[in-house]
Each structure stands twice: as structure tokens, then as C-alpha cells.
Amino acid sequence: MDDKDSFLHLARPLGPAQVGAQPVTAPLSVTIQPQAIFSILDHSLRRNPDQDRVIGTLLGTRSEDGTEVEIRNCYAVPHTETAEQVEVDMEFQKTMLSLHLRANPREVLVGWYATSAELNTFSALIQNFYGQQGDGTWPHPAVHLTVSTEPGREIEARTYISAPIGVTAERADESCLFIPVPYEIKYGEADKSGLELIAAAKDSEDRSVGVMGDVESLERAIEQVLEMLARVSNYVNEVIDEEASPSNALGQFLMNALSLAPKVDPADIERDFNNHIQDVLVVSYLANTIRTQIDLSNRLATAALTLGPESTGGATGGEGGQKDRQDRRGDRNKGRQQQNRSAES
């Protein structure tokens, strides 16, 4: 995070708490999946022109002790907001939550989101609604995620939890203290590839980009690795030459990254790579051989079905009929010879 995003978070007070309840404090960290951010941005693009912000429900998983929350999914919740009041469709929220938990039993309600960085009285009211007992996140605090969606500016996210403050019982529902908590937008290799492919479309006029093949993807990955190595090498050289200010955190990160790299001789790497290439070629040759054999078998079977059994059976029948005629001729000749012998006698 940048310096403006840094903060000190000591404890997590539960909220909103009932009178006489003993809150339990524990640290909290939030992990956000990119598909949840995409759903929020899509909801913001489809909002009515007279709406300044839209809200929705956050769903995900929570650790057993409640110290770690992962936001995986979300859905929009209809609401109307004016300068005097705010109305949230609670029945829609309960129905959608029941249907979503039925389809995804491993996920739970973790909080709500809004497409505005502003925190006001209405935000406290909605926060208390999501953190209440029964249909809310109690005894865990509700996570409030704010995502800025102003056109032409970078997307900024913030995560908060709430704590009750010393107010009267009449104003407890619309009052709370928002406490910022650290968050991380986490994505895997498949998500990273998809995001890079989508980001590459902004450089084209028609906002489209073709999918790269395996060889092109490998070439691009190697180029990116070489570029990062060159950038790190330049930074280290500038620090050694006292041209750049050193950073203890960055130096420790580089040391940890280098300690994970295996110490292998370059000749061994080249030998293993060549052996791997040979294995791939052998597998490819066997696959092509099997494919050719299957194709040949299919053609032989098709030829047999096209000719049919009549052609071979007819030839056999013709040979058998010719043999029968020869046998009958032989029998007639034998009968004539016997008649001639009888006449002579």
C-alpha cells in the first residue's frame, strides 16, 4: 500500500453489540477475489442515472476464529437514497441470501459494499443492519467495502469494520465508528492471465485482442521475467553506487526471494530442459502414431461395410455351384458307363 493507505490497527471490536454484551477483540484481515470487484463495477455501470452510489451484499468465507475473511462473491441489493432517508429492500436481501447460500453452502454472509468512499449516517444504519443478530453477521463484525467508480480515475478500495460508540439507545441503530482494516486483492495465475489479456485490449482501437498460443505466452513470460531482473539489477547497482536511497523492506524482500531460488548449475538446467524437450517429442510421436492407426482402422471398417458380405459370399457360392455341376456331370457319366456295360453283357 501507499503511505496514505497505511494505518495502525490494534484490535477488532465486535459491533454492533447489545447492551450488556462483552465484545471480544481480535485482529482482522480481508482478502478480496477479483470476481467480486468485477461484479461491483458491473453493478455500478448499470445503475440508474439519478443514483450516486449502489450497494450490495458480500459473501465469502471466514476462518474459525473470525480473524481472516475472504470475499468471493456479491450481489446487488435495490435501495433508494435521498438527503433525508434511505430505504433498503430487506425482503429481497433475505431471499437472495437464502438462495445464494443454498447454491453455495460453503459461503457465508460477511458484509456489504458501496460504490462510494463517503461514510455517513446512512452508512452506519446499513452497517448495523448487516451486523445485527439473526440475519446478520453477529457475533462477527460486518465488513464494509467501498469501491470508487469515478470515470477516468484509478479504482480505489477500502475495507472497514464497525464498533459501537457511546450514544443513547434511540440513536444506536444509526451510529457506529468505522475502523479501517487491511485488505489484499488476491488472484491466481489463471486470473492474472485473464486480467492481462483484458488489459491489453485498451491499446487497440476496436477494444479487442486475440488469444495468444502456448509458445507466444511462454515467450512473453520470459520477456517479463528478463525485464524484472534487469529492473532489480539496476536498482541494486544504483543503491551500491549511492545514486538511490536504500530500503530495508525492499532489501529483505529481495533476500527472501533469492533464498527461495534453487542453486542449480546452468549446465544442469540446460540438460534437464533438453531431456524434457525429448520427452515431449516422444509423446507427440506416439500420439501421432496412435492417431494414424485409429484412422487406418476406421477406414478399413468403413471399406468392409461398403463392400458388404454379399460380394465375398457370392464368390463362394459361385465356386460351390460350379463344383456341384461338375459332380452332377460326373454322376451322369458314371450312369452311362454302367448302362453300356449292362447292354454288352
Automatic annotation (TrEMBL):
SMART domains: JAB_MPN (SM00232). Residues 336-345 have a biased composition (Low complexity). GO terms for molecular function: metallopeptidase activity; translation initiation factor activity; translation initiation factor binding. It is found in: Cytoplasm. Residues 30-166 form the MPN domain. Belongs to the eIF-3 subunit F family. This is Eukaryotic translation initiation factor 3 subunit F. The lineage of its organism: Eukaryota, Fungi, Dikarya, Ascomycota, Pezizomycotina.
